[in-house]
Amino acid sequence: MTPPPWTLRGHGLVALYAPAPHLPLGALMLVRYASSPVGPYDELLWVEAPVASPAGPRPQVRSIVVSTRASVAGGRRNWGIPKRPAGFEWEGEPGRGQVRVTGADGRGVAHLAYRWGGLRLPVTTALVPAPLRTLAQPALDGDEGWLFTTPSAQGHVTPARLTVLHVDGLHPPLVSVRPHLTLGVPDFRLVFPVPRRT
Predict the structure, then answer these.
(1) Which residues contact 62 (CB under 8 A, 6 or more apart)?
(2) What pLDDT band is residue 4 in, cutting at 50, 70 and 90?
(3) Looking at the 3D structure of the chain, how many domains does it have?
(4) What pLDDT is stored for residue 170 in this prediction?
(5) Fewer beta carbons within 10 Å, N or C terminal of the chain?
(6) Which domain holds residue 177?
(7) Any domain includes 108
(8) pTM, whole model, 2 decimals?
(9) Which helix H or strand E contains 77, and what residues bound it?
(10) CATH number at residue 52
(11) Is the preceding omega at residue 59 within 30 degrees of 0, hence cis?
């Protein structure tokens, strides 16, 4: 298991969802990490905010699948992120295509279509107050307490479109709900630091 901090680079999409019946405020993220301390891997996750924690309302990763066992082990142990293994089958090219995600049990987790392009704007999380980007995760796998992690990132964003054709095990209502805003992230650098444990 590779300890923090981790520095990761890659590209992906972020779809933001406004609160609706049976749907809290949250984001669906689809990411391809080109490099990380445990090598390249793919990731699909649902994060909600705000979620109650000992430090007050914070974002929390509710469900996440990744393509390598090393990422599963590191995410669960280092930051309390509830990663599960899955297979990712990509069609198309960066910026336009589809992906099918299959769980370790062989069942379909998600089928997504996406595209992005146009003007690229630089972004940095340094403009976001730390409490709004600090993940609050209960410890996993027999550990006790909570882990609080404040990632930092920089890169570029561009207008994008994400169509959820199927999802099972992340957040089922997403099939019938359109994102409030979708951004492509053609390049980024992300740092996951050592968490604060309570």
Answers:
(1) 26, 46, 47, 48, 51, 82, 171
(2) very high
(3) 1
(4) 83
(5) N
(6) 6-197
(7) yes
(8) 0.96
(9) helix 69-79
(10) 2.40.400.10
(11) no
